[in-house]
Design brief:
The chain is α/β, with parallel strands linked by helices. Helices cover 32% and strands 19% of the residues. It comes from Terrabacter tumescens.
């Protein structure tokens, strides 16, 4: 069972540079959340701060009634056992086989026997589709397999919180789709709290229960998937729908001349909201909401054609009904 993470007034700086300030959100227990944002907005820094690898300048991160920002190192070490982390490149030890990479946290943090470790490692590698690859080295496998091996390692201590940094980095669209399906299936099986940092619009529009957007040193918005996908907030609308009109330019923020040139231009209509990705076996996840429920409950009329396909309105994706 996942746990809730309550973040309040979080601020992080490096010297005179503010990364983001006053970030406040709640990651609901057992749900999948995605954090988006243009490059350089501190998404990876946010993940590292959540797990206590970086200390914020202000604010709190409360898990199970304990504020991580105020814990002693020994207590923080214990709370970190709630977390599993999948880094961008898998962060595997190049000289170790996949089996030994996945077994490493168990050997480092538990007193389990090798027989127990073998059972757990075999189970997790099967879960991510790597059965039979236990003896391979990271350099002998594809990027997608390295991601899955990193995911297996993140799962061996049965975490209640899973932090995933740029899972689509270096992967082609087909393998990104496979790993997205794996996240949805895993969430249904282990009921952990997921936070995925990504740039992939398809992932953001179809995988999560909640979406957040970091922009210009603050959290522009965080909430249920349908709330953001139907939002008229310019930066949210522009980013989630891959539009050129809006405050985001080639640099993090457009200059005044660009914005003035765009004033008066009619924004493209919002694309249809796609159906959320379902589990492979069709069984509902605990956190899953009926399609259109948020819109109905909040009196919001979704764009025409919403909830008719998995890929509706996703730039560059062929529509696939069902």
């Amino acid at each position: 069972m996942g746990v809730e993470i309550a973040v309040t007034g979080l601020t992080k700086t490096f010297g005179s540079q503010t990364i983001w300030r006053d970030v406040t959100l709640t990651l609901p227990a057992g749900e999948i959340s995605v954090m988006l944002g243009p490059s350089g907005t501190g998404k990876s820094v946010f993940l590292k701060t959540l797990v206590g690898l970086l200390k914020p300048d202000a604010g709190s991160i409360v898990i199970n009634g304990r504020d991580l920002t105020r814990l002693r190192e020994a207590d923080l070490y214990e709370v970190r056992k709630l977390f599993g982390v999948l880094f961008q490149d898998g962060a595997l030890f190049g000289s170790m086989t996949l089996y030994d990479n996945v077994a490493f946290p168990l050997r480092e943090h538990t007193k389990k026997t090798e027989a127990e470790i073998r059972r757990i490692v075999t189970e997790k590698m099967e879960l991510v589709g790597l059965s039979g690859a236990e003896g391979k080295l990271p350099g002998e496998i594809s990027g997608g397999m390295r991601k899955r091996a990193g995911l297996a390692r993140a799962l061996v201590l049965d975490p209640e919180i899973l932090l995933i940094d740029e899972p689509d980095s270096g992967l082609d669209p087909v393998r990104t789709s496979y790993i997205n399906q794996l996240f949805v299936d895993l969430n249904a099986q282990i009921d952990a709290t997921f936070l995925i940092v990504t740039h992939d619009i398809n992932t953001a529009r179809t995988v999560p229960d909640n979406i957040g957007l970091l922009y210009h040193k603050h959290l522009a918005m965080f909430g249920p998937r349908e709330m953001l996908l139907s939002s008229e907030e310019p930066v949210v609308r522009q980013f989630l729908n891959a539009q050129t009109i809006g405050p985001i330019g080639m640099s993090e923020e457009k200059d005044a001349d660009e914005l003035a040139a765009e004033s008066g231009q009619e924004l493209p209509p919002l694309p249809p909201i796609a159906l959320q990705l379902a589990t492979s076996d069709g069984q509902p996840r605990r956190a899953e909401r009926p399609a259109g429920a948020w819109c109905r409950d909040n009196g919001v009329t979704p764009p025409p054609g919403s909830f008719e396909s998995r890929n509706a309105g996703i730039p560059g994706v062929r529509v696939e009904v069902g």
